[in-house]
Amino acid sequence: MEFICTKCGKRTPVTTMQPTCECGGLFELDFTPEAWDPELIDDKEWSQFRYRRFMALEGDAWRDVTLGEGHTPIVRFDDDVLFKMDYMMPTLSFKDRGAATLVAHMKAIGVKSCVQDSSGNAGNAVAAYAARAGIKCEIFVPEGTSPSKIRMIESHGAKVNVVPGTRDHCADVCRAKVRDEGAYYANHVYNPFFYEGMKAYIYETLEQLGRIPAHIVVPVGNGTLFIGVVKALEHLEKSGAIDKFPQIIALQSENCDPLYRAVKTHDAHPASIVPKPTMAEGIAIGVPMRGDELLDMSYRHNIAFVRAPEEKILEARAKIAARGIYCEHTTAANYAAYLAYCEEHGPTPDTLITMCGAGIKSDH
Ligand SMILES: Cc1ncc(COP(=O)(O)O)c(C=O)c1O
Ligand SMILES: [Zn+2]
Predict the structure, then answer these.
(1) Considering only CA atoms, which residue is closest to atom 5 of ligand 1?
(2) Cβ pair 143, 364 in contact under 8 A
(3) In contact, 171 and 36? CB cutoff 8 Å
(4) Cα 57 to averaged position of ligand 2 atoms, centre (Å)
(5) Which mean pLDDT values do the consecutive 10-residue runs of the chain (364 residues) have?
């Protein structure tokens, strides 16, 4: 299997230890899954790897890596809204989907140690799966990251570096280590194997509901779930398994909204912004590395962008918790943004919202 450079088109075997093409362009996978067919689901496997026939995976390394991720319940919240409970995962967030496929790939190609930067959840997930796979791991998080996320990462034996400054600066510091020391970059934005796991969010939804809801609410920082959702829906549409592409409602923070702004002016590139502090730490990405790709997908599928109002996040979290569901602040932003969308567009029934991070993680 090969990567293709999104900038110059050069091909590189996926066994490479490099994070990007020689030209600096990000990789994408040269992989087209076979047509969706429920007969190809491994119904004896109770993790997201039941859909592995549709994922770019070579060999069986995933068997030593899986922690039973995926297969999260879909719960009715009210007449209009369904929650997919993606915090019901081994490390309590949706990032386990991508970390499981990425670390399976890393194990398959013989990676011995890795680094990753994260607002907390992706680092948590990579640390846990790397521990499972026997791969040494070092995680960079920005200052202000929830202490419970840091404790979880350390508990898996990973080294944590808390970097002063913004989330974007934290990524720069980690990438300097990748560049200067040749560390393997187990990153959810750079490495396309991460997206292979995120696709299962949609495959599961189809299997669980027997259909795809009319509206899908997806948070976008770097857009890992966003890309996974779009790729899986394109796969289902191409296979004739769905006849209508759902309305994706992508959300950003009111205080960090480079893609929201770009879409408003139909720009091909993310807007240049100075992020302000937000409670939604998970989506505080001022410079999304795959920004042009995300915008291209948005225009291709008429994806709506909405912002989570900062002052509504705690209210949304309380409303959700009052119905028995305890999610983290960034995740409450998904529901706050949905309500903002309804204010603008009227009632929006048949909506699936991801409950992507557990409340116990945001203890500040
Ligand atoms: C709870 C939560 N929601 C949303 C996101 C945004 O994910 P992405 O940056 O891949 O778009 C993150 C990222 O860490 C997160 O932790
Ligand atoms: Zn290139």
Answers:
(1) 282
(2) no
(3) no
(4) 23
(5) 97 97 97 97 97 95 97 97 98 98 98 93 96 97 90 96 92 94 94 98 98 98 98 98 97 98 98 94 93 98 98 97 96 98 98 96 70
